[in-house]
C-alpha cells in the first residue's frame, strides 16, 4: 500500500528524447490529491509524451515520476492499477455491447466480480448510457463512445484519471456533461484528474494549469492567477488601413500592436478609457472595436507566442464557451 498521503503525481526533471527530438526537456511539477490539473500547449509541445510517461506507456529517458506514490519506471504494475486512461484514439471494441466492453475491462483489472454489476450500473447511469448497455458500440455516435470510454476508465475506481483531449470534436451538450461527470467524480470519489486540452474554456475548469511549449513548462498556476499575470485589457480594432493603424499606434501612443486574425490587436491597462482617445487621435478610419478582459487565450498567447487557433484548428465555438461559462458560473 502507498504511504499515508503522497501527492497524486510528483514529477522531477522528467526527460524524453526520441533520437534527435527532445520531446520533454526536464519538467517538474506536483499534483495534489483531488486536484483537476490541466496541460495546455501547442501541437508538439510534449503533452502526450508527458502523459504517456506518467501512464507507463513510454519510458522516461531520465528523471523520475511517481503516480499515487508509485514510481512509473520501477513500479509500473502498481501505477497501472491505480490509474484510469481515456485517450483520444478510441479503444472500445465495436463488436461488443457497452456492457460487454465494461465487463472485459473489469476482468482485465481484476475487479471483484461481486461489485462489478453495481459499479457498472453506477458508471453507465452517470454517463447516461444505462438504457443503451446492450447495444453494440458500433452503433454508437462519437459522443456516446467517448462517454462509454470515460465510464470504462472509471470502472475500477482509479485514484488518478488521465484524459488526453477528452472532449475534442464533441457537441456542447456532451462536453458540458462530461465536465459535470469530472467534477462529480472529483467531489464524490476524490479522483485526481490530469488532462490535456486545447479548449481554453475547458482549461477554466482546472484548479491549476501548466502551459507547455517545446518540451518545457513555461508557466504553472491557477486560471485566475494566470489571467491576472497578463493584466491588461485586449483591444481588437478593425481599420481601413491596418499598416497605417500600426504605425499611428506606435508613433502617437507608443503601443506595439500586431495584426492577428485580420484585426489590429494590442493590450492597454484600461481599455474602455482608451477607446475614445483612439477615435479622437488615431487618424485612421476605425470600422470596429472590441475590448475584452484577459482570457486564457491571452495567457496562452503571452506565454507561447501564438494563439490557440494557430496551434490547433478545432478551437471551441462561441456556443461552447457560453455553455462552459454557464457551467463554471454554476460551480462557484
Ligand atoms: N513515438 C515517437 N517517436 C518519435 N517522436 C515522437 C514520438 N512521440 C512524440 N514524438 C515527438 O515528440 C514531440 C512532442 O509530441 P507530443 O505528442 O508529446 O506533443 P503534444 O503536446 O501532445 O501535441 P498535440 O497537441 O499535437 O497532441 C513532437 O515533436 C513529436 O513529433
Ligand atoms: Mg497530444
TrEMBL record:
Q: InterPro entries annotated for this entry? A: AAA+_ATPase, ABC_transporter-like_ATP-bd, ABC_transporter-like_CS, DrrA, DrrA1/2-like_C, P-loop_NTPase
Write one Gene Ontology MF term: ATP binding
Task: List residues of the ABC transporter domain.
Answer: 9-239
The annotated topology with respect to the bilayer is: Peripheral membrane protein
Which Pfam family would be a valid example here?
ABC_tran
Work out whether the entry's keyword set contains Metal-binding: no
Protein keywords: ATP-binding, Nucleotide-binding, Transport
Q: Where in the cell is it found?
A: Cell membrane
What name does this protein carry? Answer: ATP-binding cassette domain-containing protein
Organism, by scientific name, is Conexibacter stalactiti
Amino acid at each position: 500500500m502507498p504511504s499515508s498521503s503522497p501527492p497524486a503525481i510528483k514529477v522531477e526533471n522528467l526527460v524524453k528524447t526520441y533520437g534527435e527530438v527532445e520531446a520533454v526537456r526536464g519538467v517538474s511539477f506536483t499534483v495534489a490529491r483531488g486536484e483537476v490539473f490541466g496541460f495546455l500547449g501547442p501541437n508538439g509541445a510534449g503533452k502526450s509524451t508527458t502523459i504517456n510517461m506518467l501512464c507507463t506507456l513510454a519510458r522516461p529517458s531520465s528523471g523520475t515520476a511517481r503516480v499515487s506514490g508509485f514510481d512509473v519506471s520501477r513500479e509500473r504494475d502498481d501505477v497501472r492499477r491505480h490509474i484510469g486512461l481515456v485517450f483520444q484514439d478510441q479503444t472500445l471494441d465495436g463488436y461488443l455491447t457497452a456492457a460487454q466492453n465494461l465487463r472485459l475491462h473489469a476482468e482485465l483489472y481484476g475487479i471483484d466480480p461481486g461489485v462489478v454489476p453495481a459499479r457498472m450500473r453506477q458508471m453507465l447511469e452517470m454517463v447516461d448510457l444505462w438504457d443503451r448497455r446492450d447495444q453494440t458500440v458500433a452503433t454508437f455516435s462519437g459522443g456516446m463512445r467517448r462517454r462509454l470510454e470515460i465510464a470504462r476508465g472509471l470502472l475500477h475506481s482509479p485514484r488518478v484519471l488521465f484524459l488526453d483531449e477528452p472532449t475534442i470534436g464533441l457537441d456542447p451538450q456532451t462536453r458540458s456533461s462530461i465536465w459535470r461527470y469530472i467534477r462529480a467524480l472529483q467531489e464524490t470519489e476524490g479522483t485526481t484528474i490530469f488532462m490535456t486540452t486545447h479548449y481554453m474554456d475547458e482549461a477554466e475548469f482546472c484548479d491549476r494549469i501548466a502551459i507547455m511549449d517545446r518540451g518545457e513548462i513555461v508557466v504553472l498556476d491557477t486560471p485566475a492567477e494566470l489571467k491576472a499575470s497578463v493584466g491588461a485589457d485586449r483591444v481588437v480594432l478593425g481599420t481601413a488601413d491596418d499598416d497605417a493603424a500600426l504605425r499611428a499606434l506606435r508613433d502617437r501612443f507608443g503601443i506595439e500592436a500586431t495584426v492577428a486574425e485580420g484585426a489590429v490587436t494590442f493590450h492597454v491597462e484600461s481599455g474602455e478609457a482608451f477607446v475614445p482617445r483612439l477615435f479622437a487621435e488615431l487618424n485612421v478610419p476605425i470600422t470596429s472595436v472590441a475590448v475584452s478582459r484577459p482570457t486564457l487565450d491571452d495567457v496562452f498567447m503571452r506565454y507561447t507566442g501564438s494563439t490557440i487557433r494557430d496551434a490547433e484548428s478545432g478551437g471551441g465555438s462561441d456556443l461552447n464557451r457560453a455553455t462552459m461559462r454557464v457551467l463554471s458560473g454554476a460551480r462557484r
